[in-house]
Each structure stands twice: as structure tokens, then as C-alpha cells.
Queue: 4 jobs
Job 1
Amino acid sequence: MSGLWKKLTSKLGRSNQAPHGPTVIPRDEHCVSRRLISDSALKVIHRLNQADHEAYLVGGGVRDLLLGGEPKDFDVATDATPEEVRALFRNSRIIGRRFRIVHVRFGREVIEVTTFRGNHDAPQTNSKAKAKHSARNESGMLLRDNVYGSMDEDALRRDLSINALYYSSRDFAVYDFVGGLDDLNNRLVRIIGDPETRYREDPVRMLRVVRFAAKLDFDIEANTEAPLSKLAPLLEDIAAARMFDEVLKLFMNGRALQTYALMQRYGLFAPLFPATQRLLDTQSPATTELIHQGLANTDARIQEGKPVTPAFLYAILLWPVVKQLHQELLDDGVPPIPALHQAAERCLHKQQQRVAIPKRFSLPMRDIWELQLRFEKQSGKRAAQLVENRYFRAGYDFLLLREQAGEVEGQLSQWWQAFYEAQPDTRQGMQQHAQDDSDRERRPRPRRRRRRPRKDT
Ligand code: ATP
Ligand code: MG
């Protein structure tokens, strides 16, 4: 960051209010260049401007460009209402109820357009109209956050100071109402306004604090940090559907391990994964190790540009619970595979109350878990069938992870790796070999009854 910029930004006081209007950083004193902004976002801003609306790039796009990084997506803030935005873009739709915004789609890219939010305490002419746009529950949580306002009011309604910087493509300047540039400079995550009120309004902001601290490697400012542990349980009240996306953002940003460490420090993991947390608190370090390894592997894959699927991630976070339930069912005499199905069912059913995992992910999760049992049987035709399973690769990676965490012996994955790579005729030999080995181990043993063919679920 340039010295000049430092000087400029340090002029702004620590107050979150904006008594003297914004600090304006002209084009030649910051590094946000139009070349680095998506054409679609620029198009949206341009068209809104042409229709006589104010429109700015805001949020992660400005923050990440100022830090010299590459934004994940681009968000636009405007004084146009969602309906007015909708009318300007054919390729758009209004989404959300609690917080209405417009998604403008350009192929695979989506630009989020948000109408400036205003102060909820401002007097409204009609209280019925107000209830439609603003509502809180008894703990202060905003059930509706659709009161519109001006740009400076909007800045105060955003979560973090570093996320409340606006870029204008009219004058190419950056506007800062809340000391965000200063905090970027000092690498600080700071919530705007009174921390407790802001967390009560929307407890997800607590997750956003740790997410950005981990992602950007920033410190959490002291007042922002202070209420986290006390208010963490408020996360239990967040809709499970919203939580699904939040969890992905926490753990699929390449800094999952660090995010997880912060979540544990402030008690933010327990409200999301209560059953896993109970085991972490009571069980051997192996449970912790599996989650650490899993998140470290996820980070490594993302850094190498390899794909990571939500199913794999959730399979890791819930595996300790499934394993425990499975063992309890085995102890009750339920055979292994049905026991696994029941364990998965119970675990997922409970988990859905906190984080709603869509079927398209929970189905592969069950497969990944079931494969762990099936991997133990290396013999017979089943080995060849297993390799054909569409989640074999994910299941195999999961097996490797369990090995790294010290949960299973290394030979198992070596055998499957070799089997997978072998030609069909070699595979047959390997199966025979494994069969011979396991027969030798099992002898003497009564003759097995022929099994009736069974339908795999
Ligand atoms: P990234 O997209 O890189 O994860 P981002 O900061 O752009 O980071 P988004 O979730 O895209 O995050 O949100 C865009 C902007 O909307 C944020 O920068 C912030 O200004 C505002 N915002 C998002 N969530 C909240 C919230 N819960 N409370 C207040 N403001 C929020
Ligand atoms: Mg964004």
C-alpha cells in the first residue's frame, strides 16, 4: 500500500459513523482498475447510471482488488429498488425474502445487485408498511432487512469496514465511510457499529468475521472479537438452508484449517455441528485428527486447483458421528451394512436441523461412508464392482484421509490403489490372492452358506 494512501486513510478517525462524509480516494491514488473488474459488473453499473441511478462496485470486489487479489465475485450497490433493477435487466430475478436482492445473470456469472439499505429505527409513515420491510425477533435478529436508504446509510448497514468500500466507474474513485481503508492497511477485521447489536441482528456476521480473518490473514479487532464466544449460540437460530451455503464458504476458501481453528476458539463450530462437537469434546484425539487432516487436504486441493465437492467435505465433518452410531448399532447386533445405512440416516436427519444438506450431496456422502466398510472386503467379484462405483475415487480419497489420521492401516489403500491401476486380468489374480490370504487367516472355519442375491441400496 502506498505511503500516500496510508497518510490519506490515517486521517479518518476510528469512529464507525461518518460525520464528515466519506473519504474519497481518487483514481491515481488507488489500484482498483477497470481492467480487473468483470465486464458484466461494469455493464450493470453502466446501465444503472444511464437510467439515472447511482451504482457502485462494493464488497469483496473492491476489497480484494485493493489488496492486490482476485475477487471471487462482484457485487453492486445502487439506489434503484429491486423492482427498478429487475425492469432494467431481462436476465435478472429478485431473490430472498429476509434480504431482497437482484441476481443479474450473464452466462455462468451472476452479479448481485443490492439496493442501498437504510436505518431500521428511522420513523416510518405507516407502521404496517414498516413491518413489511423491517422485523426483528426477541433476541434482536432481523427477520426482514428491506428498509432502503442512502449510500452513507448503506455503508453503516454492511458487516465489516473492509467490506464497505465503494468504487464508482463514473469518477473511478473509492469511497470510504467507515474507516475501511485504514483497516485494510492495518490488516484488521472490524465490525461496523456496536458489535453485539450487529451480531444479534444477524449472527452469521460472526462467521463472516472469522472467515475473513482466516482468508485474508487479518487480526480481529478487540471490540469485534469480545462478544463472539458469548453470542455464538445465536447461530442455532439461523435457517438451516442459509447455513449450508455459509459452511461451504467457511471451508471451501482454501483456508479451512485456519477458519476451523478460529471457529473452535470462539465456540462457533458447536452450534453448526453439535453432534460432531460432542465427540470432539469427549473422544480420543483421533476425531480431531481426522477433521484437521480433512480440512488440510481440502485446502491443499484448492491450492492445487483440484476440485473439492461439498459431499466430501460434509462426509468428513460428520464421519465421527456416523462411526459412533454405527458402532452402537453393531453392538446391538445389527449387521454391518444395514447398521451403516441406519447410522447415516440418523446422523443426517439430526444434522439437517442445523445445516440443510441437499440430497444431491447427502446421497454421495452415504456412498462415501458405505465404501469405507466395503473396502475392508478385498476379495470376490465385489472388488471389481466397487471400482465401478461412481464415488469410488471419492471413497478411496476418504480412505487415504482416514489412514493419514491413523484410523486405518496403510495396506488397505495400497491394495485398492494397485487393484484400481491393474489391468482386468491382473485384477482377477489380485482378487484370488486376497481370497487365498483371507481364507488362510480365517481357517478353520465352518463352510459359508450360499448367500441369497441381495439388492444393494
Ligand atoms: P466474497 O464474495 O469474497 O466471499 P464478499 O465480501 O463480497 O466476499 P458477499 O457475501 O459476496 O461477501 O457479500 C457482499 C457484501 O455484502 C459484503 O462485502 C458486505 O458488504 C455485504 N454483506 C454480506 N453479508 C452481510 C451481512 N450478513 N450483514 C451485513 N452485510 C453483509
Ligand atoms: Mg462477493
Job 2
Amino acid sequence: MSSYLIRGGRALQGEAVCQGSKNSSLPILAACILCEGAVELDNIPEITDVDATVKILSWLGCRITREGTHMTVDASDVTTGEIPDELMREMRSSVIFLGAVLARTGRALISAPGGCEIGLRPIDLHLNAIGKMGAKVENSAGVIECTAPEGLKGAVITLSFPSVGATENVMIAAVLAEGETVIRNAAREPEISDLADFLNAMGARVSGAGESTVRIEGVKQLHAAAHTVIPDRIAGATLLAAGAVTGGNICVRGLIPAHLEPVIDVFEQAGNEISIRSDAVVLRGPKRLKSVKTVRTMPYPGFPTDIQPPVTAMLCVSRGTSVVIETIFESRYKYVGELVRFGAKIRVDGRMAVVEGAQRLYAANTLTPDLRGGAALVLAALAAEGESRVDEIRHIDRGYEDFSKTLSALGADVRRI
Ligand code: EPZ
């Protein structure tokens, strides 16, 4: 079990480069299975969710090389569509392989990914959509078998909720399907557009990605391609929140400001001075942050749910009371119980958290409940006077590349033990 020892109370200063996007890399890596050739990928972050995805790709027969953030994936020899339970269990979002293995092999056997710390994570939208495209879907006792021996057929899919994963699975499954697929009420996240750019680079015909209606014209075959993954807007915003909560002055390079408009607005409401450059965001934190009346998470282009925990941690030291409303996941406040150990004054009532800003936070020993909740605890430890410990940081390793090294380079006193 690894932990961070953090001596807080220091303002972060300096420049950091934003990592590649985890939530873009995972579906793009799964989509490599559609292509019987070698794909070159760049800016793939060195995080354990990518390690787990690479394990599944190798199990399925892909040949992979990986140097730092550069990867090649050759899926020429993929024949099986069965992913063993222990590999599925390692990463919640491995359901993203469903569309890819089904489209490539005509069969997919996966285990229901199971809930995680932030919610039940059902996949009904994925399965209904795949069924509409002609697959036979059997879901018994946690094992899901989808078969489409004659291949998938294009269909009009209306999502009752703009699910990111379901939109991605349908896009991937539709690329080699017969005819056109239309997704209505599609998710509009930047990672959807990045996936579409990658699929089109391999010869797919996807249009409308980033809007609510996405069209995919089925093609016969895909060819090799090269793609650089977009920066991780959530990791970048987490670093900005670290600057804000310590009253620091940091520049995050490689970030695409257009991906973070609602987050930048909340940072400014909290009294941070933000300046936007073409590919960087600079944040100068005030001596004392102001509270923000309401922070409500919404599907893109609204305020992203993944940055809710770090921003809630930032609001813990603001002046006044803020209200946070989590509309996407049903239990994304597990980390709040740990924040209270730092002296934070937060009341949670269902989807709402009421944050009463405290003058200061005090060092505490805490336990990371999930990926973004862990980031929130690190931010609180950076703001708290004295030495704090954050345990079970394997959750943080899932989505943040070398988090302690990045923070130390900004002047934080963080040691991994
Ligand atoms: C993706 O998860 C991200 N993960 C999540 O990031 C992110 O929080 C989420 O999108 C929302 O932006 C990856 O991209 C790997 P959803 P996903 O399907 O696809 C319900 C992180 O910290 N739903 O948009 O699972 C679901 O229960 C992670 O990086 C159904 O009801 O999100 C949830 O309440 C956490 N049925 C809501 O929709 C379904 O079939 C949003 O889920 C699918 C989803």
C-alpha cells in the first residue's frame, strides 16, 4: 500500500505540462482492435488504467510496443472476443472493449464491469444500443455475451442519457457495420471528438462528433494510422485547483482552454485570476478564495463531474458558503468524510454538498476512496498546515501521471512512501 506524505501550507509556483487524456486514451486503445494493421499513438499517459487496458489488448492478441507516452498497437492477429473476468475487474471502464471486439470478431464475452466507488455504473444504454444494431445480447449472472455472426447493422440509436461510454461503444461498433448509424442525444465531451478523429484517421466515416447527433457510415475495412491524444482536461484542471487552494501562481501548458470553460468560470468566481494563452492556462490564486454560490455538474459542455471533488476541496478554504450539486453519479461524495478530518466543514445531503469555508485546514491522515476523491484529499493536504498522510494512492495512480513528481516540481513538499 503506497501513501503520500505531504507537508502543506506552501504556495505552488511554476509551470507544469498537462498529461495526455486518460478518458480519450482508453476508448482509442480499444478501437485499435478494429484495425488489422499497426497504429501509432502519442501522448498516451503513463497511468495504471492504461496498463490495465494494455493487458487486455495483449490478452486479445495485439502486439504492443510502449516507450513513455508513445505506443504502437498491431491488432492483426486478434481472433478472440473473450475478456477474462479478472482483467475486466481491474478496470471499471473496460466495458469500452465491447463494441470493438464485437465488431472485429462477431462475438464479445465480458463480465459486467461491476460498480465502483462512485456509483453502480450500469451499462443498460450500451447493451440496448448494441442490441438495436442486430447483436444478440445475453446477460446472466454478471456475464454478458453479445454475438453478431453476420456482423452489425446500422441503426438509429437514441440515448436516454448522453452517456460518454455508450456513445463511444456505439461509435466503435458502427464503424464496420453495414449501413449508417445515427446516435441521438450523444455525449459531446472532447474525448468523443478525439475518438472520432482517430477512427476517421483509420478510414472510418464519422461526422457530428461533439454535437448531439453523430452519424457513422459503415465501411468495409480500416487501415493503419497515427494519432496524438488530446491533453487531459481533468488532470490539468486538478493542477490549477492545486494552485488555487495554496494561493499559488501556476501555468499549465498543453491544456486546451476551450475544454474547460465552465471550470475556468468557477475558478474566476472563487477569486482566482486566470489568463488564457493559446495552449496554456495561468492561474494566480488570491490570498483568500471566495465561495461560489452553486457548482452543478452536467454533461459536457457543462461543469465536468470529474473535477467536482478537487473543486470542492478548493472551496473548503474559501470565505463563505458554497453549494455543490452532483447530477451525474449517485455517490460521488465518499471523499467528503475524509476531507472533514482536515477540519473542512461540509454537509452532504443526497446529491448536494454544502461547503462552509474554513479559515484554515489542519494536517490529517486520510484514506483515498477513489481516483478524483484522492486528488481532492491531496489538495486539502497541500493547503493544510503540518504533515498529512494520504493512503491507498493506487487509486490516484489510475488517472494521474506521476502526481507527486508534478506537484513537487511546482514546489510542493510531497513524498511517496
Ligand atoms: C466516463 O464514464 C468517464 N470515464 C468518467 O470519468 C466520467 O465521469 C463520465 O464519463 C462522465 O463524464 C471514462 O471515460 C473512462 P457515463 P462513463 O456513461 O462512460 C449512467 C474519471 O474519474 N449510465 O457518461 O461510465 C451512469 O450510471 C471517470 O476519469 C447509465 O445509467 O460515464 C452515470 O450516472 C469517472 N446506463 C451517468 O450515466 C449506462 O448504460 C454517466 O455515465 C451508462 C451510464
Job 3
Amino acid sequence: MKSIAVLGSTGSIGRASLDVVAAFPDRFHVAALAAGRSLERLARQVELHEPELVSIEREEDVPRLRALLPSEFRGRIRIVAGPAGLEEAASLPGADIVVAGLVGAVGLRSAHAAVAAGKRLALANKEALVVAGELLVAAARRSGAEILPVDSEHSAIHQALSCGKPAEVHRLVLTGSGGPLLTRDLATFEGITVDEALAHPTWKMGPKISVDSATMMNKGLEVIEAHFLFGVAPSKIDVLIHPQSVIHSFVEFVDGSLVAQMARNDMRFPILYALSHPNRLPNPFGRLDLVGVGRLEFQEVDPRRYPALGLARAALEAGGGMPAVVNAANEVAVGAFLEGKISFPDIVAVVSETAAAYGRVSGPGSLDEAEEIDRTARQSASRIARTLARAS
Ligand code: MG
């Protein structure tokens, strides 16, 4: 029996993780849940999974959450709050595996706490790795913790890599659907609405990652994520558009063999893999029907349509704190776009201008430094976003 802490339990990854846990009651149970402000949903999760610890964003919500719980739970479950509560959930002694399902750089400290405590980290929160990849990987090496990806592409690569030795890898190829704007007329990008950017053709996900998929910044962040997770040089990580999202990524070995992983477009598959590795459990969530899919297509990424991918790659090449700068600028820009303050093309403009304002920044030597880079880059990006908002 493995005990699981789910960080971001009311979000899309958190809910999918709890589905997986519920499907294997003799294998997994929930030790801790951490969520933000969706208290009603969280209360239902607490009732269903009976964790020992619950962490929420705001201290003032603790009495409200307690009131939402059935009386027999109120005394039994410890409720904590704020960043310290989140870290407590991430490093709970009774938990074996921590699912990092938060979105954004805000998840960095809890991901680090889990790894430092020697937990298996089932990582969906790719921004944590982008902001402080070297620190997370070094902490995992020190404690002996494993980082298992809960990102469909990286889960695919993790699986494919087991078919050869590290020195036999020719390149990693991340596939991306191209998102909802793959065939949209470039001349009309200025008018893209929030709903259009969120209408992902093959995956149902939260708003931030859906917009990142439309710009393909998501794939850029995933290139950075792959570099840190697998220790592969950036020049050996390629991206290919594959609109059907059936091949989740593949590894090309030196002998010319491509080893791909396929599964349904359902995050419960990579979650189950990350929770059960090195074993495989019978997945109750359906099977991939290749005849139903019919055809698999591939094409190159057009840099004019997806300039964000190049920005992320340039940040990885520049190294140091630049991936953190680009990530922070992107979080600010996506937030401003979702609030209707800037246009879709302005997302890339904010990221590009923020990165240009920095040029270079040395890598964070500590979590405090990583958060400082994140904070100052957000300030710069917010200024640039406000200027663009006024201009339009
Ligand atoms: Mg992905």
C-alpha cells in the first residue's frame, strides 16, 4: 500500500490523480490533500479519501472548510494553511509519493520539500523544474528521491528510454498537437479570443496549460523539463507536431530505432504509470483504439506560428536563470491574456521583451534566489504587459 499526497487536489491533475487512487483502493491511499480555494470540492474529496492532513491556501478559510466537513471528520483531520502548510503536506512523514499538481512557479518549494524528504515526486508541475531544475535534480540526488514525470510526453520518454542505454540515445522527440491554432490564418492572430485559445483539440486541461498549448510555450517548457529530467543536451531534444496526440513522444536510438509510447489522451495514464512504476497495473480507464484513430500525421513546427518555442529554447541555451525569467514572463502574460488585458500575440511579445531586458542572469544557487529571479521577472513582465495593454 502506497500513501499519496496530492498537491493541487481540486485542479485537473489532482482530480485525475484521485480517480486513479480510487480505482486501486488496495494499492493506494491518500495521506494528504493540498488545494487552494475550492473548499466545497475539497471537502467532498476529504470525505471520500479521509487524508490525515489537509492544506489550504488561506488561514482564514480553515474554519469554513472545517464547517463543510461532516462532524465525524472534524476532530480527526488536521487542517493547515499557507506556504508552510503546503510544504508540510509535501513532506508528510506518512506519504510515499507526492503528486505535484500545482500550476506555475508557486509549486517550487513544495516540490523541493518532497524531493528533499526523499519522496517519489510525481511531477506535473513542470514550471518547478523550469525555474530551478538544477536545484531539484541535485536535491533528488542527495536524498535518493525519484522524480517521475506526470506529463504525457515525459512519461512516454521515460518508458521508451528503458529500451536502451543512455549513451545509445540519438535524440528525444517531443510531440505536440499544435493546439487549437494549427491551421488558423496567421493574419487573424490578433483577434484570437480566450475561448478560441482554450479550445484544445485533443486534451482537456486547465486554462494556463491550454493557453501554453496554443502558443506552444508548453512544448518549450517541456523541452526544458526533458533536459533536466533526463540529463539530455538541448541539441538532442526535438519537437514534432503530431495533431492526433496518440504518440505521446519517442526516443530515437543510435541504431535508427524509434521507440514510441502510445495511449489514450487521458492524464490518468501517465499518473498511473508514475504511481505504480516499476510495475504496471491493469488500467480501468479504457484502451486505445488505433483503428478508430485511423491515421497518424507529423509535421515540422512553423516558427512564425509558434515563436514561443524558440524563446524557450533560447532561454535554455542561455542557461542560468533565463528559463525562470521566461517562465515568469509567460505566467504573467498568460494571466493578462486570460483577463482580457492583452491580445494573444502580446503573450509572446511580453515574454520576448522581458527576456531581452534581462539578456543573461546567473542561475539560482538556492530556492530564495530562484524565487527572487521569479519575482523580479514578474515585475518586469507586468510593466511590459501594462504598456502593451495601453497601446491596444
Ligand atoms: Mg505535456
Job 4
Amino acid sequence: MSKLIISEGRPLKGRVRVSGAKNSILPIIAASLLADGKSTIDEIPYLNDVKIMCDLVKSLGASVTLSDEKTKLEICCRGLSNTTAPYELVNKMRASFLVAGPLLAKAGYVQISLPGGCAIGSRPVDLHLKGFMALGASITQGHGYIEARRSGRLKGNKVYLDFPSVGATENIMMAATLAEGVTIIENAAIEPEIVDLATYLTSMGADIKGAGTDTVKIYGVSDLKATSHTVIPDRIEAGTYMVAAAITGGDVVVENVVTDHLKPVTAKLREAGVEVSEELSSIRVRRRDLSAVDIKTHPYPGFPTDMQSQMTSLLSMACGTSMVIETIFENRFMHVSELKRMGANIKVEGRSAIIEGGSRLTGAKVKATDLRAGAALILAGLTADGTTEIENMEHVDRGYIGIDEKLKNLGANVVRVDDDSGN
Ligand code: UD1
């Protein structure tokens, strides 16, 4: 347990480099189970969630080596010694469910704990299971676990997703790589991380067409080989530093970005009066006055739900009334009550937050309830008068590599205090 103490809000200035995408590396580690041999993955963000996924694939029989600089993983898979993903690991991180597709395809059987509820909503896995069943798997459920098995190879089929779920698209895509015949996922998610996973699988020998569109075709192959891959930059980490520059009235160059992936964030920041200039692989963000904007979260290329809480912090300082509507998760306004303790004027009605902007934020003791809620509180603290203490930083550490160091390099006055050591 640790907390971050931020004193004296001040404009951030300088350059910050974005790490590899958390939401890419997690399915990519799971996909490594499909190959025989040693895969090398570069630009990995060695976050707590990544450690959990590594522990999970190790428990299934893979060996994992991390480079000294903690930016490269070698995953060696020569047969699977276990096909059970236990509650202890799936409960810690919902993305653990992504080993289900690879295990089902490769080993023919998987027993995996149901992910259960999480802080931002119920997050079911019905679409993942619908896909597995369409490919011929039989599914049973009991004692908090799901069992999926196939007899013979999985068989390619059409799968229509009622909602373009990121995780379901990934799980079904991975399972279908080793199926017999063609699988067509309709209404598939089109997030950049889906494309990154498809690139990885293709370099393993899979035959995938249309990743990044709403119709993905997977032509099954008989086996996949180990490969090497470099993970795409994390667009949510990039967006968070862009908001950090904007909220503090600073001037920051965010490096190692794919500007296309940031279009919805860039568009909304510009609409709010923030100056955003795009270079080939970097973005410069400066701000003077801020005005209110309305935001509605949508699947990509709509405004990302993972940037909603950070924008809520920013809009609490903008001139005028903004409305933020969350359409992806049912309980994703937990940062609001904490922001109100810092002086923000926000009213939540169902899935909408109405923000009366122009508040001068003041430092307070606040608690991160989940990853992005924690990021929103850090952003508020970076501009607040006085001292802000953000507790439960372990949530933030799930998604941001070295956030204290990166903020310090931009001139923020931040100190981490480890509760265990009493420092
Ligand atoms: C991924 C991201 C997460 C992001 C989310 C939406 C990873 C590791 N995490 O999560 O950061 O916030 O996409 O962009 O990539 N749903 C169902 N049934 C299902 C699956 C999903 O109803 O079987 C619903 C969920 O409850 C939710 C919505 O679909 O309301 C979106 O979920 P999904 O796209 O699956 O998100 P994740 O893959 O869990």
C-alpha cells in the first residue's frame, strides 16, 4: 500500500515518453500459449497486471524471463502442464480470462474462474462464451468456475457480437487461429490493441484478415510458431499526460505515441481550448483558457471510457457546464465523490456527470478506487492549491509505469510514501 503526495500545483513542462500498451501486452502474453518455442516481446510495460499475467502463464507451464531493463519478455512454451486458471489470479485481474481462448484451442480444455464483479461494473463474459460455443466448444459452469472443452478441433463459424467487446473479440480471435476452417467475427471491436494482437498472431503464422474493422476473418491453421514483437505505445497513458499538461496550464511533449490512436482525445482537448500539435510520433500540449465540452464514451474510435475520469478532472476547471456520459461501464464515476472533496462541482445522474466548471481545486486526502479514478485524482492534485494525498496507489500502478518519476521529470512536486515501511 502506498500513497502519492502532491504539493503546490504547478505547470508541467518538458518531455515524457509513453510506455508500451498495457491492454496490448496482456492478450499478447496469453496468445504466447498458442505457440511452441520462445517468443520475444519488446517495449513491455512491466506493470502489476503484467506480472499477474506472467504468473498465470507460468502456472500453466510457460517459462517467462524478464530482461534486466524490464522492457523485454521472453516467453517459452513447450507444452502446457496445467489448464486451470485459479480464482486467486483471475480475481486479481479480469484480463486473466484471456487465457481461456488459447487454452481451449491448444490444450482442448480450460477450467477458469469466473472474473466476478469489479469496481467499475459487473463485466460479464457471456460474449466470450458465446464465441467459444459457436466454434463447437461445450461449456459448463459450477462452483465459480467455467469449464470449456472441445472434442476434435474447434470449427470455424460466424460469431456476431451483440456489443463490440474488446476482450471477447481477442479471446475468440485467439481460439479461432487453430480452428478448422474460417471464423468470421461480426461487430468485432476495432481498438488498436486488437490490431496489435492480430499482428502478433499473424507473425506466429495465423491467417487473420480485417483486424481493425468490424468484420474479422480468421482462417484456421494447424499450428503456430514462436515469434518476436514490439508492443504499440499506450494511448491511455499518453492521453493522461496530455491532460496533465492541459490541467496544469503547462507545455509538454508526449513522446512515443501513435497520433491516430489519440484522435478522440486530441479532438476533445482542442474543443476545450487546449493547443495540441501533432508530430510523427509525438504530441505537444499547451493550454491557456479552458472551456466546457460534452463527452460521451464509445467503443473505438469513439471517446475511450479509460480517459473519461481524467477528462472529468480537467472539465471541473473549464469555464461553463460540461456533460460527461459514460456508455460502456455502469459504475465508472467513483472518482467524482473524491473530486468533490477537492472542490469540484459535479452532479452524477445515472450514467451522466454534469460538471459546473471553473472550480479552484484544493488539496485533500483522497482514495483511488480503481486505476483510472486514481489517475483522475493525481491530475486534480497536480493543479490543486495545497497538498493532495492519494491513497491506494496500487490501483494506479496497474496502468502507469513510473508515474512518480515521469511527473517529477516534468517538474511536479510528488513524493511516494510506502505505508508498509513507514517512510
Ligand atoms: C477492455 C480494456 C479496458 C477498457 C475496455 C473498454 C483490456 C485488458 N481492458 O476491457 O481497459 O476499459 O476494454 O474499452 O483490454 N461485456 C458484456 N459481455 C461480455 C464482455 C463484455 O456484456 O462478454 C460488456 C462489459 O460489461 C462492458 C462492455 O461490454 O460493459 C465493454 O467491455 P469489453 O470491451 O469487453 O472490455 P474489456 O475487454 O473487459
